[in-house]
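4.2 Preliminary Data

To establish feasibility before requesting continued support, the project team ran the inverse folding procedure on a target of 106 residues. The structure was first converted into the token representation described in Section 3, and no sequence information of any kind was made available to the design step. The complete token record follows.
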């Protein structure tokens, strides 16, 4: 799956949770076109990253336990001439120093 689709999916999950319109885990899986396990893994990953996601067994919905926002996005654009100069055109200089003991230096 490409990055754009993954970001779109995360933003959709976020919106559904904020609106408390996820439904059951199975229903959310169907909305997202994922298996139940994949959906549970995404929810768990979001929790591990600090998202205060809980599940309401009465209303059968995921919700945020406190005001919470996250933004998942990316931008593709050309660098300006100044940015190219400041980043040395994307090159990286590496200086290797030998930490070998004299017995290995030959």
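Position-by-position output of the design step:
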């Amino acid at each position: 799956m490409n990055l754009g689709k993954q970001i779109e999916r995360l933003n959709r999950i976020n919106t559904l949770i904020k609106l408390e319109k996820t439904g059951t885990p199975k229903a959310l899986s169907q909305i997202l076109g994922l298996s139940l396990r994949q959906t549970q893994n995404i929810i768990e990953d979001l929790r591990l990253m600090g998202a205060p996601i809980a599940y309401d067994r009465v209303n059968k919905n995921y919700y945020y336990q406190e005001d919470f926002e996250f933004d998942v996005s990316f931008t593709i654009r050309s660098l300006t001439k100044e940015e190219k100069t400041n980043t040395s055109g994307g090159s990286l200089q590496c200086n290797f120093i030998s930490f070998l003991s004299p017995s290995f230096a030959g």
